[in-house]
Each structure stands twice: as C-alpha cells, then as structure tokens.
Amino acid sequence: MEFCNKLGIPPVPVTEREVALFATYLARRLKPSSVRQYINIVRIMHLEAGLGHPFEQSWLVKTTLRGIDREKGREVVRKSPMTPSLLLAIKNQLNLTLPMDAVFWAACLVMFFGLLRRSNLFSDAKGFQADKQLTRDCFLIEQDSHCITVLVKWSKNNQFRERVHKVNLPVLEPHPLCPVAAVVSAFRLQGPQAPSSPAFSLTATAFARRLRYLVAGRTDISSHSFRRGGATWALSCGVPGEVIKVMGDWKSSAYLAYVDQIPQLTLDYYRTKMCTNLPTA
Predict the structure, then answer these.
(1) How far is CA 37 from the centre of its chain?
(2) pLDDT band at 240 (very low <50, low <70, confident <90, very high)
(3) Is residue 201 a contact partner of residue 103, using CB atoms and an 8 Å limit?
(4) How far, in Å, are 34, 52, 104, 162, 189 from residue 98 at the CA level?
(5) Residue 85 phi, psi (nearest 5)
(6) Angle (nearest 5°) at CA 82 between 78 and 87
(7) 185 within 8 A of 102, measured Cβ to Cβ
(8) pLDDT digits over 21-73, tens only?
C-alpha cells in the first residue's frame, strides 16, 4: 500500500510494469526470497478479487526478479547448530532451583533432543494455543521407563493435525544434559497444573531474549539452532539419515542441508567409501 500510495495507483488491479517496479522498490532493502514473497501477495490479492494471475507469463517480471537474484545473490544464511558444549555453557549460567530457569532449560533440551521447532513449544503474538503448543498432558512419564514420550499434535508439516508425531526423550542421568531430568524438575518446580496448561510457560519472544543473553549476543544462534543442532549431532554420531528424518518429522530431505555443518563427516566418507574404492590402474 505504501508503494501504491507513492505512485498514486490502486493496489488492484496492477500492470506487469507496476509489479516489476514494485519488485525493484522492495529489492532496495529485502533479500530476493523476501521480494518473491511480497510479489506473491500481489498475486493472491488479484486472485481473491477474481481477476486472475496478473503476471503469470510476464517476461518483464520474470527477468526483473532474475536480475535481482543476480545482483544481490540468493545465498541462504542459516543459523549455527546448537552443540552439547554450548548447552553446558548455558546451563552453567542458570539457577535451576528457580522455576523460570528450570523451564527455560527443559525447553532447550526438549528442542535439542526432540528436534522440535520453537512453534511446538512457545506461544507467539496470537497467545498460547493448546491445540498447537505442547501442554502438560503431551508428556507421558511412565514408571521404570527409559524415556519420556512427547505427543506433538501440530507442526509446520502437520498443520491440519491429521496425525500425532511421537518424540522419545531419553533418560541420560546422571549426565547433566538429561532431558528427562530437566522436564521432571521443571514440572515439579512449577507445581500442579491443569493437563491443558502450557508445558513451558514462556513466550517465543521471552525465550529468544533469554537465549540471546546467555550466548553473549551471538546473532548466529536462535531457537532454530536447537533443531539444527540436534540433527547435526545425530548425524555426527552416525545416526542414519532416514532415522533422523523420522525423528525430526521432515517430509522432505531438508535435513540433509545440515551435513554441511560437519565437514569431518563428509571427509570421512571420501576417505572410507570413495577413495578406498578408486582403481589404481
């Protein structure tokens, strides 16, 4: 709307030339991938108005977007993976006798070992949603069990809740990174709660702010670092890729992008699988 107001044109309908101008206007401050997302909104607005796709076969729009890609590049900057060493450094700064510190720490380990997204645990601006975020009754703690089973009812890959993804968190006591011990301690310190109450009484913003402080302001670490870190650590430990895909509930092979975080792993494959089988004559 800001763009349209500056040019004195209506937002619907627009010409392909105006769409190309809008793309270059956005490219001053946005990444090429974000420019495409904004341009797609223009398409949706026209379809909702019953006007059809305004630039589906537009050579002008297509080459403008290609030129933006070439000029700015399309490199994807990923967050660094969380590591066990960094987790221990975070734990050493917490007072785990305090309920909020215990909840924060339990959330860290659940995301790392469960390969979960931030949206599985924390509420955002819309507030807590019991049908999306984890609640107390999503954690099945059984006596004499070697794990806690977490029932994930909703995720980015399961937006219509047609299935329940089960995550098993292992008992690692007396190791300081035991996720089961962290969850049990957090629940105990918070006291009795209703089954449908939030498992982790933190907002996404509050968690991100605390995490940034504990990692000394590192911009390459975020809540997504736990999911990346869990998958990266599993790969480095030799867990088969297909098993990791199931653990993280990936529909695609996106988890394979994490291999680039483990150069030693790929080097070992070169040495043990490829180089040893090369002919000598």
Answers:
(1) 18
(2) confident
(3) yes
(4) 41, 57, 10, 37, 8
(5) -65, -40
(6) 160
(7) yes
(8) 999 999 999 999 899 999 999 999 999 999 988 888 899 999 999 999 998 88
Distance CA 230, CA 255 (A): 11
SS3 percent helix, strand, coil of the chain, rounded to 5, is 50, 10, 40
In the DSSP assignment, the letter for residue 261 is G
pLDDT, residue 259, reads 59
> Does the pLDDT at position 84 exceed 60?
yes
Nearest to 157, CA basis, from 229, 248, 77: 248
Confidence of residue 241 (pLDDT cuts 50, 70, 90): confident
Residue 279 burial class via C-beta count within 10 angstroms: exposed 0-12, middle 13-18, buried 19 and up: exposed
CB 183 within 8 A of CB 139: yes
Distance separating the N- and C-terminal Cα atoms of the chain: 68
Structure token digits, residue 260:
């680039």
Assess contact for 223 and 208: CB atoms under 8 A: yes
Integer Cα distance of 94 and 100 in angstroms: 10
| Rounded-to-integer distance, Cα 108 and Cα 222, Å | 11
pTM of this structure: 0.77
Own/partner contacts of 158-166, CB < 8 Å, gap of 24 or more, are 158/249, 161/131, 165/249
> Which residues have CB under 8 Å from 239's CB, separation 6+?
247
Tokens describing residue 218: 């590192």
DSSP H or E stretch at residue 170: strand 165-170
Give per-residue pLDDT as tens, 252-278. Answer: 777 777 655 665 655 565 556 556 666
Tell me which residue has tokens 């980015």. Answer: 156
Tokens of 58: 């537009």
Q: How far is CA 76 from the centre of its chain?
A: 14
The strand ranges marked E within the chain are 139-141, 147-152, 165-170
